[in-house]
Structure formats: structure tokens, C-alpha cells
Amino acid sequence: MANLKGLVKDTAIYGMSSIVGRFLNYLLVPLYTHVISAESGGYGVVTNLYAYSALFLVILTFGMETTFFRFANKEGENPHAVFSTAIAMVGTLALLFLAGVLGFIGPITEAMGYADHPEYVQVMAVVTTLDVLQAIPFSYLRYQKKAIKFASLKFLFIVLNIGLNLLFFVALGKTDVGYVFTLNLACTGLITFFFIPELFGVRWEFDFSLLRRMFTYSWPILVLGIAGILNQTFDKMIFPWAYTYTGEHTMKEAQVQLGIYGGCVKVAMIMAMITQAFRYAYEPIVFAKSKDKDSKEYYAVAMKYFIIFTLFAFLCVEGYLDLLKRIVNSDYHEGLKVVPIVMVAEIMMGVYFNLSFWYKLIDKTIWGAWFSFAGCIVLVAVNILLVPCYGYMACAWGGFAGYGTAMVLSYVVGQKVNPIRYDLKGICAYTLLAAVLFVVMESLPSAWPAWLRMVLNSGLIVLFLIWLVRRDLPLHSLPVIGKKFRK
């Protein structure tokens, strides 16, 4: 029981630090989009470089975070040697990356379109390197069950980053996009110092034989990680090149369009935070239920309610978009048409996550790599072929097509290999209802006052809830309030 309580406590700390941290970082979006105008293209630069940073973070950590946990807890292995070997490998890769970027900064910035501002790429290369160097020490904190220090460092970075951004962009009135990267570097550099006890408090041992075994274990994780992160970032990396490829648009126009897209995608990321919260709550339960006889029935019910919950969230975001759009400045609002497309893509990603348990529970994770790569290929193709003609709308539809492909493949193969009887009839009914209500919301005249549209949209959302209560959530089954209906 004590171990279970400790697990619940640590899971809550790690989960809340991630979810709350993501929400607090989300608060920087209105700040950036209000001080960095859309026409400047500055937020497009931020969107583009952070996408590259996310990709290289996955590549350079090389799946060693998961590998560290596996080998540090493996019988017969020396945890100190595992830590030393992992950080030596990751650190070497990170420093080689930094040396390569700084050594070839001219050609790199020329190819990326930042020849006039090479300092942007230089600073983000250092930030990425420091993030990579912190990855294994953060994992070591989790291995040592130092959840409080782990969460404290995460929160310290976020609070410091938000505070400095408010100081420079609000109090001091700065508008140069370069401060976004510089302030990130300052905060990341400070956090690195807090790992001195972990870096110098262990007995350093490097084992080539251990490295070979860890490498064998980690490279499939790396492949899966690259496929996953490309699905999230490829459109933002490739957009400047694809949009200017035909010569009809300039790099400045590409940065403006990418900034508008990046800003409006953040509005849709409310859905991503919902799916993240669901994942933290649901993932431990899935593995705990795996040995129960009714586990498949449980997964089927959980899938149905996940879809119902996300469709409800989708309608709420769309219904109150007149209010939520204030998250970004008005000169970004022309891109709000991507919000429903991106949200549906996020729902499909959530469904894909739920479907992924069929191969995780039978230790056939290679299927996940195949599905993710298939989705990634579709996303890449849509972006390369359609961005020159349709701009950032192609990015939105590329994500939709990519996640949709991975979702469908996982379902079709899963029903053959490890079938689960999902309530497809009920799921389709809710999806159709949400689609009809969405069309009605979109049909309301834009000339009407925003408050009137939101009132009418509220009525439509209530209709969805009424349908839910009548079909699948009778009031008498609810805790507390259900007692009144059972009398």
C-alpha cells in the first residue's frame, strides 16, 4: 500500500508539473502575438525555430531517457555506470551538434532564410544543446524518486521565463523577436546549474559494452520518436521553403504566413492540453487493467467517452471562439479558419493514442513506428505538394490527413491482430451530431453581435449535453447529484 501511495503521489507531481507547466507557457502566446505584429513575421520565426529545436531534441537524446530507466532498473547493471554512459553519449552528440551549427552557421542560416540574423540560430542551437544535456539528469531525478526537485526545476524555468518576458516585452517595451530566444537561453542556462549535484555527485564510469547494449535498445525508440515529432513539427519547419519554392512568394511573406498559422494553432492547442490530461489519467489504468478479464470492454468504453469528451470540448472552443480568439492579436485572426481543422486532427491523434494500447500490451511496439511513419509520409506529401498553392491551410489539412492515416491503420490492423469491439454506432452518432452542430455554429452570420452568437452556440452545446444524458449518462448514475434522481 505504501508503494502504491508513493506511485500515486509521484504520478500526480510529474503529471501536474507537465500539464500546469504547459498551460503557463501557453500564457506567452497572447504576449508574443500582441507585441510582435503579424506583418513583421517575427512570430513565424519563433514558430519555425522552435519546431527545429523540438526535432533535434528528440534526435540528440537518442531515446536515452527511456533506455536509462530500463537499464538502471535492470538486475545486474550498475546504475552509476548507466547514468555516466548515457550522459556521455548524449553529451557527445549535443556538443557535436553545437560545433556543427556554429562552424557552418553561414550556409545553415542562408538555407534557412536567416542570413540577416544568424544569432537567432546560434542562440537556439545553444538552448537545444543545454536542453539535451539536462535530459538525462532530469531522468536521474525521477530514478532517485526526487519528484519535488524535478517539478520545482520545471516550474522555476517557467516562472522565470514568463517573468523575464513580461519585464522585457511589457515593462521595457521591447519588440525584437531575438529577445524570445535570448531569454530562453538565460533561463535554460540557469536551470543547468542546479544539476551540479547530479553531475558531480556520482562515480563516473563509462562502459563500451554497456553502450552497445543501450544503443541496441534505444534506436527503435529514436525512430518512433522522430516519426512522432515530425508529425507535430514538420509543417512548421518546411513551410518557409515550400511557400517560397516556386519563386512567387518571398521569405518575409512566408514568415508572416507561418506566424499567423502558428499563432492560431495555439488557440486549437486547448484540445492538446485536454488529451494530455486524459493521457496522464488513463495510461496507468490501462496497464493496471491489462490482466483483467473485462479489460477489452473497459478499453472500448473508455474510447467512447474519450471521443464524447473531446467532441464536447471541440464544440465549446468553436462556440466561444469569439472570446477565445482574443488569445492572439487581431492581426492574426485571418488564420482562425485553421482552428477546427487542427482540433479535429488533435482528436484523431488522441484516438490513435487510445488505439495504440493494443500493440503496447502485446509488446509489438514496432507497429507504432510503422503507423507513425505512414502518417508522417502523408503529412510530408500534403505539405510539399499543396503549401505553394494553398499556404498554411495545407499545413492544417496535412496534419488532419497524417493523423487520420495513422488512426485508421492502427484501427484496421488492431482489429485483425488484437480485436476490441468498440461501439462504432454510438461513436458515429456523437460525431455526426457534433458535425451538424458545428455547421450550424459556422452558419450564424458574422454580422451578428458576438454575444448573440455565443448565446445561440451555448444552446447548441446544451443540445449535445442533453443527447449525452439521454443516451449514455443518465443523471441517476452520477455521484452526489444522482441521489436526488434516485429518490
> What about the largest sheet?
none
Low-confidence stretches: none
Report strand %.
under 5%
End-to-end distance, in Å?
37 Å
**Helix/strand structural class:** mainly alpha
Helix content: over 70%
In short:
The protein is 80% helix and 0% strand. By secondary structure, it is mainly α.
Could you characterize what this model shows?
- The chain is mainly alpha-helical and 487 residues long.
- Helices cover 80% and strands 0% of the residues.
- The model has no long low-confidence stretch (mean pLDDT 84).
Secondary-structure map with pairings?
Blueprint: H1 2-26, H2 28-35, H3 42-61, H4 64-72, H5 79-103, H6 105-112, H7 118-143, H8 147-171, H9 178-193, H10 196-200, H11 208-244, H12 251-268, H13 270-289, H14 295-319, H15 321-324, H16 339-355, H17 357-360, H18 366-390, H19 392-417, H20 424-443, H21 450-471, H22 482-486
Helix pairs in contact: 1-8, 1-13, 2-8, 3-7, 3-11, 3-12, 4-5, 4-7, 4-11, 5-7, 5-11, 7-9, 8-9, 11-12, 11-18, 11-19, 12-16, 13-14, 13-16, 14-16, 14-20, 14-21, 16-19, 18-19, 20-21
